[in-house]
TrEMBL record:
<protein>
    <submittedName>
        <fullName>Uncharacterized protein</fullName>
    </submittedName>
</protein>
<feature type="transmembrane region" description="Helical">
    <location>
        <begin position="196"/>
        <end position="219"/>
    </location>
</feature>
<feature type="transmembrane region" description="Helical">
    <location>
        <begin position="262"/>
        <end position="283"/>
    </location>
</feature>
<feature type="transmembrane region" description="Helical">
    <location>
        <begin position="82"/>
        <end position="103"/>
    </location>
</feature>
<feature type="transmembrane region" description="Helical">
    <location>
        <begin position="124"/>
        <end position="149"/>
    </location>
</feature>
<keyword id="KW-0472">Membrane</keyword>
<keyword id="KW-0812">Transmembrane</keyword>
<feature type="transmembrane region" description="Helical">
    <location>
        <begin position="50"/>
        <end position="70"/>
    </location>
</feature>
<feature type="transmembrane region" description="Helical">
    <location>
        <begin position="169"/>
        <end position="189"/>
    </location>
</feature>
<keyword id="KW-1133">Transmembrane helix</keyword>
């Protein structure tokens, strides 16, 4: 060939506005929050999260109806105890939805595609944690809000005290949401298979609860109540309940809580440690997945 032809096929440099890191984080957050509720996915993906949300809401609605009929405000459930009473439902929600957020990209080997764009490994992990935390907070805060609204409608005594207890319960729900979500995501990210992730998350919550309850029963039988309280910190639900009792002034819902004055600060530090370690696990897991 002695000659050639140059074809203009229309490639041009992008001269538009760069949206930056905040837009990337917001987009990842919204995408994962929708995925946690099955939005934008087939109908079967929506069944489990919305069914569990309905199950969470049903006892609150029923309790408000009982209070309205009986005119006995003392029958209203304690706001801070709602998550503990329904911890089985919360654990199932985490077990079914955490693998959707943590392991789906790993299973289909698409993590490198995310990082081919200016997305940081830490940003990727934090967006997933924020999304599942929001979904968990919605799951727990809506029934508590229904209880509070029902109490106001039925004219419970001391509305100011009820408002303070409601706000304290919302703070506890936020702490529950971030601690439980971080732990569930870290466990689910350890395997790319969703079925294994579901089993692993359920096992962590059930086995820890069974072990702690057994040890606490033995300790209380020997009248070692302080040791029974400290052992409660080994299960995530009791860990957050200890913070609610010792730092937020709630009544205890667990079998035992660690004694004051160290119980509350130690429990809060353990919550921070759980979240920090879980973020580190997620960061390492997604970084490893990006290198495959």
């Amino acid at each position: 060939m002695t000659s050639g032809t140059i074809h203009d096929i229309g490639y041009r440099r992008y001269d538009g506005r760069r949206l930056g890191r905040s837009y990337v984080l917001r987009s990842l957050y919204v995408h994962n929050l929708r995925a946690a509720w099955g939005l934008g996915r087939p109908a079967r993906a929506k069944v489990m999260p919305f069914l569990l949300a309905a199950i969470m809401l049903l006892p609150a609605a029923a309790d408000v109806a009982v209070v309205a009929i009986s005119r006995e405000p003392e029958l209203l459930w304690r706001y801070s105890a709602y998550a503990t009473y329904l911890q089985a439902v919360i654990a199932i929600f985490l077990a079914t939805q955490a693998p959707v957020l943590a392991s789906r990209e790993l299973r289909f080997h698409v993590v490198p595609l995310y990082f081919s764009r200016p997305v940081g490994h830490l940003d990727f992990a934090l967006a997933k944690l924020a999304a599942l935390t929001t979904a968990m907070f919605m799951l727990m805060a809506v029934p508590v809000t229904v209880l509070y609204a029902g109490g106001l409608i039925n004219q419970v005594p001391d509305p100011g005290g009820h408002a303070l207890r409601y706000l304290s319960a919302l703070a506890g729900a936020a702490l529950y949401a971030v601690v439980l979500s971080a732990l569930a995501l870290a466990v689910a990210a350890c395997t790319p298979r969703r079925g294994f992730g579901v089993a692993a998350v359920i096992s962590v919550y059930l086995l820890s609860s069974m072990f702690v309850l057994t040890v606490q029963g033995i300790a209380e039988a020997r009248t070692n109540f302080a040791f029974a309280g400290w052992m409660g910190l080994l299960t995530p639900f009791n860990l957050v309940d200890a913070v609610q009792v010792r730092l937020l002034g709630a009544q205890k819902s667990a079998v035992a809580v660690p004694p004051a004055p160290l119980g509350g600060p130690v429990a809060l530090l353990l919550c921070v440690a759980v979240v920090a370690v879980s973020i580190a696990v997620l960061y390492r897991r997604f970084r490893k997945g990006a290198d495959l």
